[in-house]
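Design review, sub-item: ligand-bound model
Attendees: FS, YL, KQ
YL presented the inputs for the adenosine-5'-triphosphate complex:
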Amino acid sequence: MSEIVLEQVTKRYGRVTAVEGVSFRAERGSFVVLLGPSGCGKSTLLRLIAGLEEVSAGKIHIEGREVTALDPTERRLSMVFQSYALFPHLSVAENIVFGLKVRGLPAPERRERLARVAELVGLTERLEHKPQQLSGGQRQRVALARAIVSENPICLMDEPLSNLDAQLRHEMRVEIRALQRRLGMTVVYVTHDQVEAMSMADHVILLRAGRIEQQGTPAELYARPATTFAARFIGTPAMNLVRRATIEPDARDGFTLGIRPEDIRLLANGDGGLKARVTSAEYHGADTIVTARVGEESLVVRAPGEVKLAPGAEVRLGWERSATHLFDDLGRRK
Amino acid sequence: MRHVYGWLLLTPAAILLVAFTHYPAVATLAESFFSTGTAVRPSRFVGLGNYAALLGDPIFTQVLLNNFWFALGTIPTSIALAMLMAAWVNGALPGRALVRLAYFTPTVLPMIAVANLWLYFYTPQIGLLDKVTALFGAGSHNWLGNPDTVMGCLVAMTIWKEAGFFMIFYLAALQALPPELGEAARIEGASRWYFFRRVTFPLLMPTTLFVLVNATINSFKLVDHLFILTKGGPDNASNLLLYYIYQTAFSFFDTSYAATLTVVLLALLGAFALVQFQLIERRVHYR
Amino acid sequence: MKRLIGIALAALVVAATPALALTELTFYYPIAVGGPLTKVVDNLVAGFEKEHPDVRVHAIYAGNYDDARIKALAALRAGQPAQMSVLFSIDLYELLEQDAIVAFDDIGADKTWLQSFYPALMANGTYKGKVYGIPFQRSTIVMYWNKDAFKEAGLDPEKAPATWDEMAKMAAKLVKKDAGGNLARWGVMVPSTGYAYWMFQAFARENGQDLMNRDGNQTNFANPEVISALQYWRDLGAKYKVMPEGTVEWGTLRQNFTEGKTAIMWHTTGNLTAVKESAKFPFGVAMLPASKQRGSPTGGGNWYIFKKSTPAERKAALAFIQWITSPERTAEWSIATGYVATRADAYETPKLKEYVTGFPQAAVARDQLKFATPELSTFQTGRVRKALDDAIQAALTGGKAPAEALKAAQQEAERLLKPYR
Ligand SMILES: Nc1ncnc2c1ncn2[C@@H]1O[C@H](COP(=O)(O)OP(=O)(O)OP(=O)(O)O)[C@@H](O)[C@H]1O
Ligand SMILES: [Mg+2]
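KQ shared the predicted structure:
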């Protein structure tokens, strides 16, 4: 059974349409990521699910109940805010059990759950501190702890890692994913970072200007991007999109050809392939990102290891035929 | 050399402060140890004589007591009202700019104008209050002419005047609170009241402290309305310390005794400020 | 060419001015009643300057009586010029104690001029046989009555109560209740905030008593007749139920009267013009009713000349005061303000004669002057007055019995005045 079901959900603020006709399902225990560029309506969609905003049209079901008109409280879910939304005057412990107190859980049970969750997120030493005495990562954990202590089956997270540095972000990604699995929660997770989406999600929903551009597993989105937008949004460096005529001179249509940089190989001289002139080569350790010009267009190549190429050098590029993606003149996959 | 320059820069401010704040305060204290002089009877040193007179002055005792009731009547209610109004006006309410303005209007009116307005509320028979109560069949009341009701009337008017002003501070504080706090609490199932009690109220404590200090000072400072409404009457029932100081200085010409009363007022206010900051600050969460 | 003449003329004027030996005078004056009186004062000053080109007069409006006194004394202390002022008639003792004023007898005012004013108005300005204050804006208390209300109550609308008994009885008839049994109109109102002592002087005088001696160092608050006067005032509310209990506000009383909420009020003559303009019913003005005799205190402002002045300035100030209190000017001032004309011969001027014929109410205050008593004024006058005010209010609000309240006030006054005997 699906835990969360959205049917044609639309949200308008006056003349601005933030979310339009969005439908999707999030299966129980799955990790769903709402992905998209800034301003595409991710937060709005999450807030609609939480009940913090009212839908303009459409329906929302949670655990088989229609909750479209219900208060956040009655939807039995937790939420982690981008800014954490910790109560600054309460200690870590008080912050975590805030909701339990609201619901009048007896003190012994509160204590027991607090101890368990604090252990889980590694905050046992910090329970008496105030939020401003904590580091960003610790605050993040408090917010997380507050969300999971209630033992709600659903947890919504709005860019919870965006305030952390790269190192910490990576650690937290792993932790959150592990926690989610362990507790069997259904998580809807908002991010604009495709790496986060790819590494964490069971199911990615790619949004663009309030609409769903494509949804599927990370592998599906990677392997078969439905549009040029999806193609460029997922994968780093982004997929090369060039006019088909540049590569296949006899093609007469206005189609676009897409090739991921990691699918292009640098060929030894005399192996045929496409002739190109190097404009730059950036060494990244595990691989080198080479940019080369072909006619009017520029192609990015991700070559393993260190490749020493001076700008202006001539190279030949090759790829498997199956690695190309073809898009029509409206940007749709052919 | 740098020190000299620094001191030079400070000099204008220091001169102003000394001339208009410190010197008068010290002069007042000094004067309270002398008798009031006239051209015919020069002033002489009387030690604590004026303070002894204070203890034997029944009006002094009464104005102190009045001030206490006035403070007790105005401070908690106006603060509570201000907080309530601010919370209400802070929400997304249609026409809320208008409501805010309406609340704020009493604040921009001078106290004298307010008193004139309320004089016509309270006037027996022709006053608004009596006209309204008459609609419900009640008889006329001599609101300001009765020692039992006069203080209540002044308290009500002062609350009306002050609450709007304090509301502005609360409104500013409320707007500085991140809205996610409320959303987080809603998701956790907190009612509006629970959220107010457990989150908003404690977070407003710095504002409350500020407002409390101001309200206390105001309850001793605001006497303009007495000139219009009651002149401290009937029989001192609405007389307040500062108004009594005014009467002593400008109607009795007893500047020394007025200085003595002023010293008491200053000492009281200083003590209040100290106690409030000391006691409450410990319990206030500053962000 | 024209310009040259202009410059030459200007030079002439400049050269000529010192030859006139210009004397400059500055005075402060208060306004305690309604109307555009600063303009009237400015016109008077301009008229004087026209007749006396060698004197320049600066008139400074200074707020109410208290403000005017504070400002004038502050100016003197600060060494700013002020040679004379209109101040409260009862500020006399304070000004004497500050050694701020000179007696008119000592600067060459002749006796006949000093005797041309009503004696009742001179009392507040006289100390130990010498005149320090010349009456200017002076008032008394009179009784206003609503003729329509009298008619409605079956009383003769042309006849005001003449005695205390009559007033209580007539007022009882004048009290009106509405259908719901609530009070719609009171019989009589006497204000008791602000100037309670002044109103009370009327009651005391009518009961045959003055409240202080002429030297300003003895009060008479605990006299049995004085106590019974306060008892009567209290009874109007507490016993006869013809006046609201508690205190009656001075500031709004006029409106209570003009809106028909009380049939009779006691108030200052200074309100006469204002009542005339706002009452929509015929009203009468009468002397206050008598108990043992008629009586009313005087009130208002006198001219004083300050000690800090040169002989030339004193001479000019005296000339100015004599000019502005001349019968003609006095008549003009009385018509413009409603204040009593301060001298009998002013009422003989054609202007005032005509005015009184058309509006006889204006003469009542004058006629009452023969029963008048000076306004309460003593050494330590502020405190003494407040002690009496508090006693009156305590009695009217039922906080203390009249005897108890007045005895306490007398005791306080004794304590305050002993050093001045
Ligand atoms: N309360 C509101 N009133 C009007 N417009 C709004 C409101 N909230 C959001 N919008 C608009 O809706 C659109 C989507 O906003 P939303 O906050 O959902 O974007 P987002 O995808 O979360 O962006 P980001 O990654 O920057 O957080 C934006 O164009 C925004 O301007
Ligand atoms: Mg967002």
